[in-house]
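Q: Convert this sequence to structure tokens.
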Amino acid sequence: MGGYGEAVSKTIRTPVGVMWLDDAGLLWHRLDDGITVRVEHADAIRDAVIDLSEGAPVRVVVDVSGVKFADRKARDAIASSLDDSNEVATAVIVGTPISLALGTLFLRLSRPKRPVRLFLDEAEAASWVAGVPASG
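A:
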């Protein structure tokens, strides 16, 4: 399962996918193919981030390329919940260029408190997020 070229040190199941911390210290969350993300998942995802990282500042790669649907309430709740988490930066892997364009627009409107970028390529996502300084 590991992320881009890294061994896995810890793994847990979230309500929407699998989350793990790799040996380089990146936290990965790969959402299940065909999943519908709901507003009630927000707190469980935030808690999983804190649990795996043991509360330490962490850089995150999230693969949403297989997500079937996430309505605005769910996206807003997760974004808000994670703004108050220990995430230093988040790289989001999307499945299509259209998703990339729509997601970029959403990020401009939502203005997250930490650096967030969208990618089509896992290696690029991991490289970018690993290079974000802890101060953001």
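The radius of gyration is 13 Å.
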